[in-house]
Write a structure and sequence with these properties.
single chain, 6-stranded mixed β-sheet, 4-stranded mixed β-sheet, about 30% strand
């Protein structure tokens, strides 16, 4: 039964006249594309594709069939090759200067680049081709240095173990070494002349000295250093020097000063002596050979260095001897103030019996102190607010 077969033809009008619509088409006369179930087509070669998984690229197997390659895929954006890639001819990867190219592989072979030595590296030449070049073998060690501030005529110094720096304050133009700052020389500086142009000119008494910063500067000195009026001496720390003749000083262990205390073995003051602080005398005897003795203090403390002893005042010159006199003292045993007619100036305890005649003992209020008055002629007691004398 005859029926219509749908034929879609692409091509020129002339090509349509070559088609016989009876279900049979001569392949040699057809150009274009055909859509249908292929019933009745003759002279058409079959083409079978195996492994036609999504995104695989189809290659011919040489027997009229196609193979979907598992190791060659294209997802519409990226062509992925699993395994070795061989490209013949000039090849461009990427279409812009910032397109990244990633090569995964432990080894990249450049078969046409000459083999090098241990000091061969890959570089880009002027045509942007990768070529080999030889470098200094020291780059593989630690002896290369980094350089900074490499300005003309600057001398370089090491800033650390492997870095140098062009010093702005240290220059050499082939003739003059220029140093801006301090020069520190530990040995001799030789030259036919030494000019210190920045040091001010001086007078006949100007000398060169080192200041606190170690710089050479000028200073004025006493003109007497050029004469013979300076003094000689050999002194000891802590001693106060004194002149032993017109131009010599010396010191002595008898006069010292430690920055706080002046110590002298003997002191003689011809005129007035004013002591602003306390005066402590540690000797055995203190003599005041003065016409008048004025004491501002209302109370004088005697016997401050001991307790339980007789204490008093001896009025020298009385009693027939310059070394003894009348004494008014406090009798420690009797707890009373006592008068004695004769006592040694050097005594530290009275030997007199306050109960004997010729002595006066003053007893305090017996009601309060609980004392027993001594019944001796001249003794005085206070009892019940009334005074008594023993006669």
């Amino acid at each position: 039964m005859a029926e219509w077969k749908k034929i879609i033809v692409s091509g020129s009008t002339a090509e349509l006249s070559k088609i016989v619509v009876d279900g049979h088409v001569s392949a040699s006369l057809f150009s274009g594309s055909f859509v249908g179930d292929g019933t009745g087509l003759t002279g058409v070669s079959s083409f079978t594709v195996s492994g036609d998984t999504n995104n695989r690229v189809i290659t011919a197997d040489g027997a009229g069939n196609g193979v979907g390659e598992a190791n060659l895929t294209f997802d519409g954006s990226t062509l992925t090759v699993t395994g070795a890639t061989s490209i013949t001819g000039e090849t461009t990867l990427g279409d812009a200067s910032d397109d990244p190219t990633t090569i995964y592989g432990e080894t990249v072979k450049l078969l046409n680049v000459p083999t090098g030595t241990d000091n061969t590296v890959l570089v880009l030449n002027s045509e942007n081709n990768i070529v080999t070049d030889e470098i200094d073998p020291r780059v593989w060690g630690t002896t290369l240095v980094d350089a900074a501030n490499g300005v003309n005529n600057r001398l370089a110094t090491f800033s650390d173990a492997d870095s140098i720096n062009g010093e702005a304050n240290l220059t050499f133009d082939g003739n003059i070494l220029g140093v801006t700052g301090t020069v520190n020389a530990s040995s001799t500086i030789s030259g036919s002349g030494l000019q210190l142009t920045a040091v001010p000119a001086g007078t006949d008494n100007t000398v060169l000295v080192l200041n606190a910063a170690g710089g050479v500067v000028s200073d004025e000195i006493d003109s007497r250093v050029w004469g013979s009026t300076l003094i000689d001496g050999s002194l000891t720390s802590g001693r106060v020097p004194y002149a032993s003749d017109a131009n010599t000083i010396q010191d002595s262990t008898n006069l010292t000063f430690n920055g706080t205390t002046l110590t002298a073995n003997a002191v003689s003051v011809t005129n007035d002596l004013v002591v602003g602080g306390n005066l402590t005398v540690t000797g055995t005897t203190t003599e005041l050979q003065v016409t008048n003795l004025n004491i501002e203090d209302q109370f004088i403390l005697l016997n401050s260095g001991s307790t339980g002893a007789d204490t008093g005042i001896i009025f020298g010159g009385s009693g027939g001897s310059a070394n003894q006199g009348v004494a008014l003292y406090y009798d420690n045993d009797g707890s009373r103030l006592t008068y004695i007619s004769a006592e040694s100036i050097a005594a530290n305890a009275t030997s007199a019996d306050h109960t004997a005649g010729g002595y006066v003992t003053i007893a305090y209020d017996v009601d309060t102190a609980g004392q027993t008055p001594v019944e001796a002629v001249g003794n005085i007691k206070i009892d019940g607010g009334e005074a008594y004398i023993f006669v």
